[in-house]
Amino acid sequence: MTKKQIKAKYKKETEKLVNILKEYQPEKIILFGSVAQDRARPDSDLDLCIIKKFRGSKLDQHQKITDLLWEHDYSYKIEPDVCIYAPEVFNRELKEFHPFIEEINNTGRILYDKDRAKAKG
């Protein structure tokens, strides 16, 4: 696969995933990792950080996302690797210089922002 083909493949799958994940009602969806930095290989996964207020455990939230993807018959042509943070936790860990959160914040690309979507609509 050429770099152009890889980029097109990931763009298409990312858009498909984001459209499904909007139903989960996140505040933000952030793409990070190799795909966000244009370093994707054919076997790269899709690293997504979802910012959302929630109750219960992260495990419960991951199950809700898995169920949502199943409902839409998402075929996992590219494996999504999703992390979920409540806004206050994400912001607190950012202030505490948590390396993983800093990477997401510094190199990630915001694919969906509820506040921006409301402003446009």
TrEMBL record:
Pfam families found in the cross-reference section: Polbeta (PF18765)
Domain of life: Bacteria
Domain Polymerase beta nucleotidyltransferase intervals: 15-116
Entry-linked InterPro entries: NT_sf, Polbeta, Type_VII_TA_antitoxin
CDD domains for the chain: NT_KNTase_like
Name under which the protein is recorded: Polymerase beta nucleotidyltransferase domain-containing protein
Protein species of origin: Candidatus Kuenenbacteria bacterium RIFCSPLOWO2_02_FULL_42_16
